[in-house]
Amino acid sequence: MRIVLVGPPGAGKGTQAAFLAKNLAIPHIATGDLFRANISQGTPLGQKAQEYMRAGQLVPDEVTIGMAKGRMEEEDAAGGFLLDGFPRNIAQAQALDGYLDETGLKLDAVLDLEVPEDEVVKRIAGRRICRSDSSHVFHVEYSPAKTEGVCDVCGGELYQREDDREETVRKRLEVYHSETEPIIDHYKTQGLVTTISALGAVSEVTERAMQAISAE
Q1: Residue ranges of the alpha helices (H) in the chain?
Q2: CB within 10 Å: which end of the chain, N or C, has fewer?
Q3: What is the pLDDT of residue 204?
């Protein structure tokens, strides 16, 4: 199966993508992973991306598209893939359409993870990260540390990342609404979109997603 996963920041796309990819035995292709792999391998596209990132500029669509195409052409993606974070705007969606047309492939589904905006803000702004080990993550409401401000695992200081502050989250949501959300309507015209509530336990959301895919 070939699936695109869409949703605002804080919707749990990465978590759901990992579960779905494992259940469906297809690779999880995430934009962040593409960038890291190309940069670490020193590919021409990775070098271009790094130039823009060092200058504090957005990586152009053509670079991201090139990375995504290269990954979709790898052997493990021959039987399908799950795209997470790509496409992120109409230009990228149109480029993906063109690539699939050229290769004689098609998308099977676009899963739209829906979360109320206030819940997104609560989820992200409540995160607290350990300064000693960033893999130790807590939440002031959903998974609080036993002692406020102190990591349960190693005793390190817990802090709120700049990206997780409420005003930053709301700006990220504005970008999502203006740039990424329009691709949902783009894919609705192709009859591919299923909207899924991303509220509740992770397993419940995964079950909804699997049911939506099996109905395709």
Answers
A1: 13-24, 31-41, 44-54, 61-72, 90-103, 117-125, 166-175, 182-188, 202-214
A2: C
A3: 95
The answer to whether 131 is a known catalytic residue is no
Residue whose token pair is 């349960």 = 152
Tens digit of pLDDT for each residue in 143-198? 999 999 999 999 999 999 999 999 999 999 999 999 999 999 999 999 999 999 99
* CATH architecture designation of domain 2-214: 3-Layer(aba) Sandwich (3.40)
Is 208 considered catalytic here? Answer: no
Catalytic status, residue 161: yes
Tell me whether strands 137-139 and 127-130 are parallel, antiparallel or unpaired: antiparallel
Q: Which of 122, 123, 172, 208 is catalytic?
A: 172
- How far apart (Å, rounded) are the C-alpha atoms in residues 57 and 34? 17
